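Dear colleague,

Following up on yesterday's call, I've attached the two folding results inline so they're easy to grep. Please treat them as preliminary; we haven't cross-checked anything against experimental data yet. The first protein's sequence and structure tokens come first.
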Amino acid sequence: MGRFFLILSIVFLSLLVLLFFPFWLDADVHYDMNKSKFAFSVALFKKIKLIGGYATTYRGGVALHVSPEKAILIDYSEMNGKRKKFSFMKSFRLQSFVITAETGAEYLLGVSLAHTFVQTYLLYKDSERKNIRSNLWLTDGDILKITGHITLFFNLFILVMEFIKFLKEKIKSICRKKTEKSII
């Protein structure tokens, strides 16, 4: 009987640790207008690369090149349908956000307005964070380069709770549709 409780308590403690263990995602993005490239990288704990590569457009959508021989094709028509599905992005907590834009005088007004809007929005949504920085560099010539670094925090408990909320809303909408059909 004692061995059963020992194994049960070890499993329970392991599950608790796994649920509340913090995960850190680091995303780096770089856009260069002159080369028409958008490069990205997503890593777990800054060490474990999850995905990375560059994105280009083609006639029917966007191609994500994740290796020299592999590309993920996303049609423009599929983007709207994928957006409406359950998104784990709501579950992530923003820890730091750093964006740097290097631009010439031609794009200065638009880039400075975009920087102001992004920084105001992020401070409005997450006013306690001090790790939100925005840099604007003015250079000579027709240049527009934007670089960003984002650090996100999550744990499995947060993901499970968001998934339960999603299921609850889905069940409510299905029940509402069923009752509307039965009334008519």
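Below is the second protein, in the same order (sequence, then structure):
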Amino acid sequence: MAVFNTTTIESQILQAHDVELQNKLNRAQSAFTDLNNYDFNSTGPMPSPIDWTAPTGVVFRFDSAASELQYGGNPYTSLTPAQRREFFQYLPKFMVACMKAYDDTYNL
């Protein structure tokens, strides 16, 4: 006997949206945690704070005393949908800027 899938298309859409939002939250938190825990070969912790200005003119900030990355002076969880789109658009470049700051700090 076949098992029937009783999940409606509408429920699947809502569940997919939940997954998308949770993945974004996890990505933002993981970026902060990874920077906060970074210590290449026991060289030292990530310098803090690190600011980087996105091409839009908005400043990213990593501050080890905070609990999440900031964009435009606001923590990720307080950003508007438009700000979150920009946040993820420039997050990889911000991470590279953090690695450059790390290298400069420890003369690597």
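For the second protein, one point worth flagging: The helical segments are 9-37, 81-105.

Best wishes,
A.L.
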